[in-house]
Amino acid sequence: MTFLFENRSHKKNSIRKPILSLFRTFFSLKALVLSSFLIFSVLFSAPLSAQNQEKNPQTQTGTGTGGTDPAPNPTSKPMEGGIRVTGKKDPRDREILRTPNSISRLNEQDIQDAGINRTNDIDKQVPNFSIIDSGSRNFTYFNIRGMRSIAFSEPAVGLILDGIPLNDNVALNTELYGLENIEVYRGSQATLFGKNFQGGVVEIRTKKPTNVPEGKITYDAGNYKKQETSIYYNAPIIHDKLFFGIAGKSTEREGYLSNITGFYYPNNRPYEIPVEIYKTHPDGRKGKAGRFRLYFTPNDIFEADLQISAESFDDGSLNLVNYLGAKSEREKALLQGCVAMPSNCSKLYGTYINRVNGDRKVYWDYEGKSNVTGNTYSLATTTKLPHTNLKTASAIRKMDIDPITADSDFTTTDQNRSIYVEKATTFLNDIYVESKDKHDPLQFKAGIYASNKITNIDQAREHRSQVYVINDFPGLSAPTREKNLSRLHDKNVSFYTHNSYTFAEKFTITLGARLERQESRLSHTEQAVGISRANNPLGETLVLSDPYTINNRYNYNVSRLIFDYKPIDNLMFFIGFSRGYKNAGYSTVVNVPNRAAFKPEINDTIEAGIKSEFFKGKFGLKYTQFYTETQDFHVVRAINLSQYINLNAELVTIRGYELESFIKPQKDTKIGLSAGYTEGIFNKFHDSVLNRDFNGKWVHFIPKYDIVSYLQYRNEYGIFFRGEFQAVGQMYFAADNTVYSDPYYVINSRIGYETDTISAYLYMNNINDRYYFTSYIDGTFQAVPGAPKTYGFMLTYKI
């Protein structure tokens, strides 16, 4: 087994003619003319900025650059500590309403109400955003509008924490604590943020310290022996000058799986429920994370934000079960069997009950583990120049997966084990200037982003059967490890700019461009390491394939054009055209050099939407439709159990929509509905490994739809209730559309009592205990089940 996971979907009628060719020429002009125009606009914006700054020094509610919250004044008081304060309007909500982009925002109140505790809770609240969980936090992939991250390639959807892009898999599935807000941008953000992300961005901001000391402690206990404690505390060191913040979280729970290592049937009849002799729960998780922060504002011109964070997790074995044992497949077999042989229906039903009780049961000889650490050191600064703000962000990110181990044959026979080790270090720098007066009709942002990432990977399959080793690795004895050793070095430098101009306060044109240079290098060798037949205690190494090195360079040039119209203050229409890309890369587990490299993925998108809010904030509606054509779409394909490559599907089309709405029938009650639909089709895809065409098939690992609706009640006496319905459509796991996850729904509820200092909640998630899958490992019939019914008690104290 190798630790590689990808994404797939289905459709019978292929879309024959691209409709984006009319504006594709615009995006392929290398953006040079546009970039020159935008730089010219930035340089000559100072006089106009100065004039408007004197007229209106308030914070922007406009349309242009987005992506960052207004920096709070550290000398001012924060909003009331009690989360029951509901009358105040968040100014950032106003900005998003006037930004021509499909954005979902969750403020601190929303995060607590929805019970978001880690990154893979976010997608359940956001339309057209799904998280493909591979069974371990080390391999988790974000998916927005079908633009998804897969093994080997750069993330299509990025995570930005306090202005720092974090693009490794560990960061994408981590614990959250001390949060201020979460914003999810859908669609290509190449021209807006420093790091390129073609599918979208999840931007998270934590609590920034001020002159007013504040903090919160949360304790959460539930079934599966769950215990979580999180805390944050911010306070001044020197009034108005220097502030500090600390935050941390510890988490632990028992595993959802039952590994049965001994059982027997009383009468040796398979339809009787077996008696289990011994079982363990190998996928239990525990870990700790922490963050220290210094915020320095020596004067009114300069501020610096220094953060050091660390996380360490032990996630146990991979959360994998046999897909062929899924309840849906058993239900079909039961119905077919009862129709064919009614006399045996009772026995069949007994077998069905037996297997249903074993939904999360596995039978492994070896329980794996998953250890990971991540450390981030970052410094962000802001310098307030006369007419612009100069901002910088620098960081060092170190991530270690050491190791993941798993039973790769998934049987009680000790034949094969998988071992994966990865160590990565990333250096990044982002420097940009942006508008200072947010009411100026001309808004601009221009910057330079550079990154340097070095990754060392040791991916091995340990063969423990002597017969196999003797035949395939002459001179060695079991156990022998078949190892793919890779070193990746990736360097990127890019210039990006995002600018807008508003005419008569109603009509805005936004133009963006990005020029990027990528240099990448792969060094690879494949070895077999084991004990020599001569019983040499030092072992022996066989070179299975000649070492090779590949160097590639790429230039990317993309642009963005958006028109928006605001006929009245609370209503906006927009239409946009954009080109996005996902960087080229290499497979790290293939010994054939000409199959290791894969091309960049390029996508052109047209989207149109409406945003509105009426009746003094009692009703809101956001709706966006999109159509995307993608060239060289990335698809992972297994060559064998030890080698995988990334293929480029020639043409994929993706279309869909997202809807977000709410209504407040009275001051204490809120009803919300979010829905997304995505249809991805392989228009042209020849799989060179299988030598098959998958034209007209749905792209795999894209849920057809997702829905979340909720009813929420909170009154002035502190009573809180939230009921939530979540539904996810069919998702294919294979390019031929033969393996898939059925549609499913879950019901969640939360009830509590809140005061200004103490809040207590009882919660239950997946009340209907739905058994469903979130991912699948091609060629193994192993799938990742979602979480079962969980419940618990949460207590929060505000310092």
Automatic annotation (TrEMBL):
One of its GO terms (biological process) is iron ion transport. It is found in: Cell outer membrane. Residues 50-89 are annotated as: Disordered. InterPro entries: Beta-barrel_TonB_sf, Plug_dom, TonB-dep_rcpt-like. GO terms for cellular component: cell outer membrane. It comes from Leptospira bourretii. Residues 97-201 form the TonB-dependent receptor plug domain. This is TonB-dependent receptor. The keyword Lipid biosynthesis does not apply. It comes from the Bacteria. It is a multi-pass membrane protein. PANTHER family: FERRICHROME IRON RECEPTOR-RELATED, TONB-DEPENDENT OUTER MEMBRANE RECEPTOR. Belongs to the TonB-dependent receptor family. Keywords: Cell outer membrane, Ion transport, Iron, Iron transport, Membrane, Receptor, TonB box, Transmembrane, Transmembrane beta strand, Transport.
